[in-house]
């Protein structure tokens, strides 16, 4: 019982603001360009990853976000949610996932998470 509460405490306190990232397949090579999937992604690319936008790049960047609206789980409602949503930057190569990075956020606009998430993607994925 004490172990369960300790684990729950660690998850609640440590769950926020941790970036989860991974290469999706067996290839983990760094890249030097990104093509935006849409207008919103183009703005994110220009603002947070300047110099990487290339319309001819084989790698496509997609920005997505999810906001928790309403939860019907009684346990979650009783304990409260440890995040308000998440932001994901995903890179595709010929329509297949190549790399993804995700960051949960709490109490704020999802746009506020973009600088940190973009910097993480840059460190892990972009060729020096």
How much β-strand is present in the residues? 25-35%
Structural classification = alpha+beta
Please compute the radius of gyration using only Cα atoms: 17 Å
Q: Give the beta-strand count.
A: 5
Tell the overall outline. Answer: globular
Kindly report how far apart the N and C termini lie.
Answer: 48 Å
Specify the biggest β-sheet.
5 strands, mixed
The protein's oligomeric status is single chain
What's the tally of helices? 4
Strand order of the largest sheet: 1-5-4-3-2
Weakly predicted, low-confidence segments: 1-16
**Which series of helices and strands comes N to C?**
HEEHEHEEH
Percent range of helical residues: 25-40%
Query: What is the overall pLDDT average?
Result: 82
Describe the model.
With 128 residues, this protein is of the alpha+beta class. Strand 2 (35-36), helix 2 (39-48) and strand 3 form a beta-alpha-beta unit. Residues 1-16 have low confidence and may be disordered. It has a five-stranded mixed sheet. The chain is globular, with a radius of gyration of 17 Å. It has helices spanning 2-14, 39-48, 74-79, 114-125, and strands spanning 19-23, 35-36, 59-67, 85-93, 96-105. The longest helix has 13 residues, at 2-14.
